[in-house]
Give the backbone structure.
Amino acid sequence: MLIKINPFDTLFFRDGKPFSMGDDSWADSLFPPSPSVIYGAIRTLFLGNTNFATADKLALEEATKHITISGIYLQTESGYCVTAPNDFAIEKTENNPQKTILQPRNAAAAGIVSNKPLTQITYPDFVVDNEKSKGIITLFDLEDYLKATDVAKISPNAKYFVSEPKIGIGRDNLTFATDEGKLYRVDMKRLSNKTQIVVELPDFPHKWLSIAKLGADSKLAHFSVEPNKTVSAQIPFTLAPTDTLFKLYLATPAIFAQGWLPAWIKPENDYIGEIGNGDRKITLQLTGTALGKPLPIGGFDLKEQQPKTMCRTVPAGSVYYFRLVAGTIEAVKELLHCKTISDYLPNEGYGLAMVGKI
């Protein structure tokens, strides 16, 4: 089923940068929000309509363990959307800019030095317009990207929200007078018309609350439930049974055990690793990447009543290139395509991956 989140007002989701009034007075906003924020909001919706009240945190986890997010998307007037992949580039020029999917190349032959000891590297042959190359793309654009066909029609949209900075100042709790040195600014976001956050998860019978808080400042949003609907079914698997090379695109941030590397990949074994079991077991070699800047994500642990450990996540839009060493393409589909492959918190929607051609 799908849960569509439509905010009534501006939204604010803090990033991992330190923020304190007076010193670091500008608080940056992270949008789309991290999967854990969405997961927490859905748990609140569930518990708020069950009259569930207990001080036993284990009981709380037991009551909500069936909630598993299988996908997080945005929906605009153009349809469902995901983050633009990092290996898609638009040339920085005024007339007829070139659009291309960057191809992995042999790093040694190109004379490129990289901090990642992999055999391949991606880089453009022209100056990239970073502003036009980033944003979100529709599922129609994503299909062209995963098929590695003509990408001339792909046009990332970076204007699906508007920044509305808010300026405030701290007050003394006794006198209600302003406190010196406590000026701050926060980067609020207002979604464009008809833009919604869409969450996919398995159907289960429950009466959901329709309105709940989302993000900082206790902003309200409307949550509508559409049972028996999916988004992932609209994303095609484009590999042929004879393919041995493919890319893995991340539509949501991922938390991997080895930083930028999934736990099952072994650097000491020439970046070869195994995943799956039995007939669905495959052996893959990582040959290259097109990663974004690490995204720090934290939060607050209600169970422990303390801040969560900050994680350096691999951001949405990152791409991994693999060679199939052993196993079948059908097993690749079953294990990796439209699956959450994060080593940590995959049930919260981290690491939503899609497989495509190179």
